[in-house]
């Protein structure tokens, strides 16, 4: 590996680790005391509409997955290009592209945040993950609160030959006990503290939603569903949502937005990777080693109220690395 490549690797590695090292150093210290070397990684796309406000809606059932991974790859490439030219440090160890924050007063925006709990994530840690993610978004946009927080639980979908079948299958998906506990411990407190004005859920059919509403203190204002394989929203869900005053939104996000293999590919060696991970099989010894597990992804969108345009949109992704 050339000196230039080694220097870039060291810089990028430090950028990935610096943010969470400052936010939650106690966790790393505790794990070192147990003999387990664990790191937290936070990846950011930045504002993916920074070229100008966007009102474009691209089709595609898995658009969020591609949008996230492609944006992260673009960021890594831009970082390499920036590193190749002289730059001025902002003094905090993380890059500052000058595009953070909103152009107008926060009251002029509808800010929607969607928190994806991934299948590989630790359920008892969801409250911490949610606070970390929301804190990153509010810092990025420079706002004291957000309009809507939607939570997406793993292994939930609307799959079926028709809306009736999809609604029936959905009733047996997920884990009611874990979802209610997460809502009470990770989500409702954020509403109580004024950090989030409204709460929402994703992929809840009529039976799932009815059971969920019976067990929560603060009901969701929104239910997002992906009906890519169905023709219409299930009538029982429409009826229940109307009775309970819940808005139904259709979306095109996938639930497992960042699979484990995809994250390793993003950070690994090769033309499509950032080159942060070691790869002994390819004779690359320099880099991070260990078990890399994606924990959460958060998607945020800031829409100017009176114009309906997206001014700022992006993703953060959190992962854990248990070092070898």
Automatic annotation (TrEMBL):
Annotated metabolic or biological route of this protein: Sulfur metabolism; glutathione biosynthesis; glutathione from L-cysteine and L-glutamate: step 1/2
Keywords annotated in UniProt: Glutathione biosynthesis, Oxidoreductase
A GO molecular-function descriptor: glutamate-cysteine ligase catalytic subunit binding
Cross-referenced InterPro entries: Gclm, NAD(P)_OxRdtase_dom_sf, NADP_OxRdtase_dom
Family annotation (SUPFAM superfamilies): NAD(P)-linked oxidoreductase
Gene Ontology cellular-component terms listed: glutamate-cysteine ligase complex
One of the protein's GO biological processes: glutathione biosynthetic process
Record-linked Pfam families: Aldo_ket_red
Family statement drawn from the similarity comment of this UniProt entry: Belongs to the aldo/keto reductase family. Glutamate--cysteine ligase light chain subfamily.
Subunit annotation: Heterodimer of a catalytic heavy chain and a regulatory light chain.
Name of the protein this chain belongs to: GCS light chain
